[in-house]
Automatic annotation (TrEMBL):
Organism: Microlunatus phosphovorus (strain ATCC 700054 / DSM 10555 / JCM 9379 / NBRC 101784 / NCIMB 13414 / VKM Ac-1990 / NM-1)
GO BP terms, alphabetized: rRNA methylation
GO molecular function: methyltransferase activity; nucleic acid binding
Annotated keywords: Methyltransferase, Transferase
Name assigned to this protein: Putative RNA methyltransferase
PROSITE patterns attached to this UniProt entry: N6_MTASE (PS00092)
Pfam families assigned: Cons_hypoth95
Top EC class for this record: transferase
Length: 192
């Protein structure tokens, strides 16, 4: 069990998908992620529930939906949660109902989805793919996000990976890159 950390639904409990198919982003990493996002968006000086107000957010490989729901709790809209696992999708639906936030939920294979034109551009796209997904596949997803207008012109992509994996090669359109390490987890940031 985990919780939404801050914002309009801060403290609300979230359930995790059963089994070991998903690997939830730890509370420590989520807090660090949203602190970085608030700084990047300029929302770090205001209340947490509006820190991402006006920013469109997409959570790919959503798992429990915790990251996308955290974004919605902090004011992001629209928010899209995308997951391919039926089991995880049921958990996402339960969590969305429990916290009563307006988000779009999609069941789709991420690699196929990003090859299609985005329904609208996102300011922030977060990816937490399975650690066993090869870097080549991840780099193809990054290229497709850019090529198929998943990002606004100055959008930000955040990729969560194991610190044992090599850093991704970013598409030229996401040339402003940096990373932050938290134990065995690395957050890679790429901005347009």
């Amino acid at each position: 069990m985990t919780r939404i950390i801050a914002g309009s639904r801060g403290g609300r409990r979230l359930t995790m998908p059963p089994g070991d198919q998903t690997r939830p982003t730890s509370s420590k990493v989520r807090e660090a992620l949203f602190s970085s996002l608030a700084s990047w968006t300029g929302g770090s000086s205001g209340p947490a529930d509006v820190a991402l107000k006006g920013w469109a957010f997409c959570d790919l490989f959503a798992g429990s939906g915790a990251v996308g729901l955290e974004a919605a709790s902090r004011g992001a809209a629209p928010v899209m949660l995308v997951e391919s696992s039926r089991r995880a999708l049921r958990t996402i639906e339960q969590n969305v109902a429990a916290v009563d936030l307006e988000v779009e939920i999609r069941r789709d294979a991420i690699q196929d989805l990003v090859r299609r034109q985005s329904p609208y551009p996102f300011d922030i796209v977060f990816l937490d793919p399975p650690y066993e997904l090869a870097n080549g596949a991840i780099e193809a997803i990054l290229r497709d996000l850019v090529a198929n207008d998943w990002l606004t012109g100055e959008g930000l992509v955040v990729l969560e990976r194991s610190s044992r994996e090599p850093a991704p090669h970013w598409p030229d359109a996401l040339s402003d890159t940096w990373e932050k390490k938290y134990g065995e987890t690395v957050l890679y940031f790429g901005a347009g």
